Amino acid sequence: MKPFVLLATRAEDVPADEEYELFLRHTGLEPASLRRVRLESEPMPEIDLDDISGIFVGGGPFNASDPYEQKSAVQRRVEAEFADLLARVVAQDAAFLGACYGIGTVGAFLGAMIDRRFGEPISVVDVELTDAGRRDPLLAGMPPTFAGFVGHKEAISALPPRAVLLASSEACPVQMFRVGENVYATQFHPELDLAGITTRIHAYADYGYFAPDELDLTLSAVSRSPVTHTGSILRAFVERYAR
After folding, report:
1. Could you list the residue range(s) of the whole structural domain that residue 81 is in?
2. In percent, how much of the chain has pLDDT > 90?
3. How far apart are CA 101 and CA 57, in angstroms?
4. Which GO terms describe its molecular function (predicted)?
5. Is the pTM of this model over 0.85?
6. What CATH number has the domain bearing residue 161?
7. DSSP string computed for 52-117
């Protein structure tokens, strides 16, 4: 089988390594079949789309909607690399699944409206499939409404015409979309479990996702409802695109 690639941007080793382990667990892949590239520490290597089965993008601290002059040199480099990669991915309709930061990269490339109107605090939300989502092969077997972990300062508020909306939540209209037949992006985190999001809450406590005195409240918010279905999306992606 040709390997999959995980493009990651987390600078902190503990949540970065745990993210990789979570992708391995939910995809069912062995490390040799899921190559990780930590873009925060090294340039994106040349990726030949014919030599891999597909691409995953994890979450991260970057916000596409931040003013350009406020972005770090690393973020500017990463965004430029993603733009070049996505130009090929979208043109070839290659297998791609971006989670959280990944939805921002695809959305920015497509010219979607990204702003802070529909940010969601770190929590568990009910995600509802659209009619297109219920018909999508990647989401076969998913219940019409399922719980998902979220936590994002920005979100897509208006999709471009070429994107198909697959899922929404009450506070965030774009939770998942597809471009073409094989390019997917989610605002929620399909890779996360309770232990994983707890690690991130502690790791990013000073990143402005919640007030300094809201740590316990945030930890409680992610425990309010079990999240049991989202990981199957990653497994379905591998089953569909492994080659």
Report:
1. 4-241
2. 95
3. 7
4. GMP synthase (glutamine-hydrolyzing) activity
5. yes
6. 3.40.50.880
7. -SEEEE---S--TTS-GGGS-HHHHHHHHHHHHHHHHHHHHT--EEEETHHHHHHHHHHT-EEEST
| DSSP codes, the chain | -PPEEEEE---SHHHHHHHHHHHHHHHT--GGGEEEEETTTSPPPP--GGG-SEEEE---S--TTS-GGGS-HHHHHHHHHHHHHHHHHHHHT--EEEETHHHHHHHHHHT-EEESTT-EEEEEEEEEE-HHHHH-GGGTT--SEEEEEEEES-EEEE--TTEEEEEEESS-S-SEEEETTTEEEESSBTT--HHHHHHHHHHTTTTTSS-GGGHHHHHHHTTSS---STHHHHHHHHHHH--
How do residues 132-156 score in pLDDT, each as one tens digit? Answer: 999 999 999 999 999 999 999 999 9
| Residue 224 pLDDT level (bands cut at 50, 70, 90) | confident
Count how many domains the chain has. 1
